[in-house]
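Collaboration report, partner site 2.

Our partner group contributed sequences for two proteins of shared interest, and the home lab folded both. The records are reproduced in the order in which they were received, starting with the first partner submission.
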Amino acid sequence: MKQIPSKAEILQWISDHPTKAAKRDIAKAFGIKGAQRIDLKRVLKELEAEGRLTKRKSSYRDAEELPPVAVLEITGTDNDGDLFARPLEWAGTGAEPLILMTLRDSDPALGAGDRILGRLTVDPAPDHSHTARMIRRIGTNPQRILGVYRQGSEGGRVLPIDKGSDKQWAIAEGATGGAKDGELVEAEQSGPKGRMGLPKARIVARLGDPTQPRAVSLIAIHQHGIPDHFPDAVVAEADAAAPTKLGQRTDLRDMPLVTIDPWDARDHDDACYVETHDGGEMTIWVAIADVAHYVTPNSELDREGRKRGNSTYFPDRVVPMLPDRLSGDLCSLHEGVERACLAVAMRIDAEGNKLSHEFHRGLMKSQASFNYEEVQAAMDGAPNDKTAPMVSDVIRPLYAAYAALKKARARRQPLELDLPERQIVLDDDGKVTSVNFKDRLDAHKLIEEFMVLANVAAAETLIAKKTDLLFRVHEEPSPEKLEALREVANASGLQLAKGQVLQTAHLNRLLEQARDTDYAELVNISTLRSMTQAYYNPDNFGHFGLALKSYAHFTSPIRRYADLIVHRALVSSHGWGNDGLSPWDREHLAETAKQISDTERRSMVAERDTTDRYLAAFLSERIGAELHGRVAGIAKFGIFVKLDETGADALVPIRTLGAEYFDFDTESQTLMGSKSGTIIGLGQRAVVKLAEAAPVTGGLTAELISLDERTMPRGPSRGRGKPTRRKVGSAKKKAAKTARKVKRTRH
């Protein structure tokens, strides 16, 4: 057993490691585990009482030393013109230290009374004890830039990593932060335009080689401002959490609930089980991790969770909404471990109609953690050692309930898009080894149907109990987007009903027409693009895509803050404890809805940008290769071809299309050659030669080789391919004309 270190040893270690002074860091450094942590806590408390340590949130520091980062107040200059500051917080016994400010050329002018956040270092010089560099002036939030640093003769520049951006930033010689040429850096705007008209910035963080695979998701995290570091107070609160006892909860520990997730899932927040009854009726149990028990209103965990809004998923990492102590442990329904949960029992008939439902706050123990593939294999007659004992009593009833719910789904007619999901496969070094398209198994679909039914039950219960909640809202397409979809359908020789109240059934008929044709992917993508984006709202406007009148998110509180709010609402409405909706939650529900809708969009964009960069890195070794795809987008500056193999979008600039001008028709989304009459329209098959793949920005450019098996004319592109905008007649006449031309060109 390790011996508890002496007070002198602890003080020396804290002095040597000022940024790692949390109790857990001290314990780890001295190998202190288990019950010995109590003795360590006692020694730290004694040092506090003696005034030799001060505690800031969850970390300790020597009371006679300043922390490495502190708020400072500028006191003025001395006779030599040096600028000094004092700490706003000083707990030492002696006089507060005098701090010499070391300013960079890019720092703003500072005067007596200004307050800054500074980074401090101890200076051995006798006339002052510390020096400090400015991080930022208090009350300001300068723009942050992520880019690649390029060294010049005097200072350098930061080049953007954003696709389509050509804005650069000038870095003064003293503001490089030690960055090397070609490094990925984060810089901060420090002033207006300087030499050569470039805005000035200073480098505040070096992020390494931008071409390394592991930098891809890091770029997206920094670029989109996704918080990826938990404050010490949040981690401390999570670390202090303990497993839940039964108490007044419903005892579900003997129920054979199982989790079914992807094979690489890090957490398990939902479990299910189906009971069968006479007459074909069944009860579907869905149990969800009771995150509300651990993340209580106005706690550090709650504020951080609301700020993040949701977890963000990248091919190589997850930025979680909650610390791992909760997301990967106490709130994860691990096999054979007792876990707190909120469960709903939903009784359905043989036709999939929900007859009744009831919520419980319970304690469960997952009987097994399965992945989708092994459950599907077991149902298909190839069980493994793990699934074999549960095929008859657990797995078959799950599929029986799904068969009933499919009947109800067919009657409801939610939108049936068929868009394969890409899966980027990485090796241990983070390099892309392949891009696969995930299989859609019935095992996936049954879990989705169970979760949809549970979400509906949550919304209906809270509406009936007149309790505040956040609805998941999806409104119908705008008339403009619907008309654009109709023109795509017409150009593809398909029909979308007009002149009636739009229902998802109408869109499903269009998708069915396109099935097994060359236009299937185009029509699915165009239908998806016509949809509005779903969002959260305290008012219920229904869910168009799912064809549901009331819908709320209940099933993923580990990774979505909206679900946590719904859990709290259920706790309040059932009187299950004092950890339900707070008055603040209710008062700020609309603000919370806006906040988490925004963070959800932020994550979606970051995930999409990361995918683009990984795909560009994957294809960068195939420059000059001919790739097959389909025209998926048309703009006045060129066409986008979606590549079959990876699903990536490559831009074919209009200037490269050949020795003629192309007219861009905005309504029909086509380009027409001014001499040849060649029409480039959505959905056409294309062969392109990959010309450029830029992993840093995620951009792909290509040259068009052939269109619908017709070789495209080659010629000098300088001054050619320039788009012009034609005046068109009515949308109806032009759509019909375009459809005829496209068909004539293709056949």
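Second partner submission, folded after the first:
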Amino acid sequence: MKAEYCQSEEFENRFRKLQELRKLGVEPYPPSFHPTHDSGELQSAWGTAKIGGSHEAEAGASPFVSAAGRLVLFRPMGKNAFAQLQDKNGRIQLMFNKDATQVEGYVPSAEDHPSPLKFIEKMVDLGDIIGVEGYLFHTLKGELTIYVKRVVILTKSLLPLPDKHAGLSDKEMRYRKRWLDLISSQSVVKVFKDRSRIMKLIRTHLDELGFLEVETPILNSIYGGAEARPFTTMLHALKQEMFLRISPEIALKKLLVGGLDRVFEIGKVFRNEGIDRTHNPEFTIMEVYAAYWDYNDMMHLTETLFENIALALHGSTDVAFFSPETQSTIILDFKTPWKKMTMKESIKVYGGIDCDALSDDEMRALLRTEGMEDKELKGATRGLLIAHLFETKVEHHLIQPHHIIDHPIETTPLCRPHRDPECYRQGLIERFESFILGGEMCNAYSELTDPELQRQLLEQQAERRAGGDEEASPYDEDFVEALCQGMPPAGGLGIGIDRLVMLFTNCQSIRDVLFFPWMKPKHISENVLES
């Protein structure tokens, strides 16, 4: 059964042309073409150079070049036709000439076959990929143009491009058919080029600090390293249930035990949880671990990394970001050092609440006024109540870069208890999260290296999981055994790459920085997803 688009008039017309091309001896899908330059290179080398006009190009007295890309505009003008060729770096103007331009494989004749120019006008459509060879010149208006001597049809497009004026305005269509989005919008292309550049900047920064990039398994027989519900699958060869990793943390710490002092990984993780403006079930994370560091060292690493990215991409530590919440542009200052506050201090400063002066029941009462349900509050420990107050009273105030340090121990089972005796007594850990624009940008801590304490905390996690907490991790004896072998003091850091890219490319949704974000199947209703 043919797809709906195959039944459209446009498809049928283009398919008919495809068949005609083959009858005329023109191969519409040749194996290769080797352009000498792309549009950006042409503009850089000859955009302002004195290379002459069309007469010099016609005589072959100007630079000879070849280029390839999509035909996105075609305008016949008598014995000439002007066109625009779009490639990865932009557009270059073409000029076809009735007498000088030839088409690869096409032989004109007086009777049945028109001139090459008429052939192009009749058989080549907008969206077709072509290769051209010719000589450069500047038009009277100064536009760099290729005087085309030879045209090679490289790909006959069977579907039209989006409307050249309206573009691809349907957001859902943009995400579902990203290839059309990339064809239609150079600004979208720039976002993904910037994403690639950011990844290179991160790798360079860590390489200069002596970190080794590694790869660890995505399929795990046991999961851990974060609190999240996993995706499950089946390894049929062993008839064993497997999990897509929710974090590479455990594997990376085992490498520290093995003597690799500084390691990092950039890779995909999978969390079977909510989908919204900043969450996608599959996302890219970077985790960094350094032996003999602590969370203070990781704070410095975070600040300098963000500062370097800002300088490289924007030439300044001041970066403009449009806030959808306030409908205004905010100037974010990434210059080091960043503001640093303990979680309790931030609740006091931004929420006006002194946690140490409140009982557990008083904190529960406050959280009820914020809409939290009794079933969430009933079994919550004091540490979790403080964390909930922070989420409701503080997070949205943290617009400029902030480090929030010294969290309650209940928030993670993998972090070192605080070295300060008073903080230790209060059940605090050496953890920080960095916040920008009211959202978490990274999570880091001084790592827990005591195997017995780690065993106890993982056992507590396993008990929570057995009690129905789907986000709690199962007990991992293999990890505890590795710690028993001895892991050096260490600092660890995790950064969501997609959110970082959103920040530096001024994108409002995580879908804007993923080539192919998750989209619900069209036949599934919103009610099904919510259930």
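Feedback sent to the partner group on the second submission included the following. The chain has two domains: 4-161, 184-338+401-519. The longest strand covers residues 64-77.
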